[in-house]
Amino acid sequence: MKSSDRQVSCQVRSERPTMPDSRIIAIAASPGPDADALAEAVRRSGGVPLSIPPDQAGSPKDALGRADGFIMSSGPVESPGGPAVGLEVRLIAAALEIDMPVLAVGDAMHSLNVALGGALPNEVAGHSADGEGDSTYHRIFIPVGCRLGKIVGSGGFARVNSRHRLGIKEARKSPLLLAAAYSLEDGGIEALESHDHDWVIGVQFRPERRKEVPRQFDRLFQGLVERAGAAGIRAAL
Predict the structure, then answer these.
(1) Closest CA to 95 of 134, 65, 130
(2) Which domain holds residue 20?
(3) pLDDT tens digits for 31-41?
(4) What's the pLDDT at 214?
């Protein structure tokens, strides 16, 4: 498929859920309430969370060797212009190499983008609240036919939380990824997906904060857990 075709079509193959007996989901997140919420979302969806704090993860092979799926919540850089080959990017690259199901949330959407050859994000204004623990909100549009819309049940408009100071638009997106949601306020990309992998989604909002997003976004975690455990994933590492 030509890269130009990727930008005009979001049609994807149908979802084929798998339900293995044990689905271990590695979670790379700094300890705290959001990491706890991610673990709870995995449990609620029938998976077994395996915490791997990014600063204690060791090698990507060691970190992911016991896992069937992967959630990342850390971005590739502290600020634009910094190194982009840190452990966050290498973890996602290792998961992608063996086609492990991946959900990248928050700034980890940029780790996904960089891992597949995209540019570093720019600083953006108006997408985060002043208080460190607070969220602001904005509306996004999910194109009909994209995998993200298929997973959560529909495309269209949604109001989600916004906690980020970095963002990208089309020019900085990897040609191997499709934009799966846009901010209505500034046109920034709010979600990415890969059609070259079995199940790879990145969202810039935080779906684990259930009181701040529509309930249908629980299906992101359900979809990840259903896809996890495909034959040969652990052995491939």
Answers:
(1) 65
(2) 3-236
(3) 888 899 999 99
(4) 93
Tell me the two tokens of residue 183: 């901010």
Question: Is-contact 199 136, C-beta < 8 A?
Answer: no
54-108: pLDDT as tens digits: 666 667 878 888 899 999 987 665 444 454 457 788 899 999 999 999 999 998 9
Supply the pLDDT for residue 13: 39
Domain of 122, CATH number, reads 3.40.50.880
One-letter-per-residue 3-state SS of 118-162: CCCCEECCCCCCCCCCCCEEEEEEECCCCHHHHHHCCCEEEEEEE
pTM attached to this predicted model: 0.84
Instruction: Give 135's contacts (C-beta < 8 A, 6+ positions apart).
Output: 129, 161, 162, 163, 206, 209, 212
149-176: pLDDT as tens digits: 999 998 899 999 988 678 889 999 999 9
How far apart, in whole angstroms, are the C-alpha atoms of residue 152 and residue 140? 14
Number of domain units in the chain: 1
Distance from C-alpha of 98 to C-alpha of 131, rounded to nearest angstrom: 39
- If one counts every other C-beta atom within 10 angstroms of the C-beta of residue 132, the result is 7
Cα distances (Å, whole numbers) of residue 48 to 21, 121, 221 = 11, 32, 12
Rounded Cα–Cα distance for residues 43 and 26 (Å): 12
Q: Ranked by mean pLDDT, which of 11-15, 119-123, 208-212 comes out on top?
A: 208-212
Residue 13 CB-half CA count within 13 A:
8
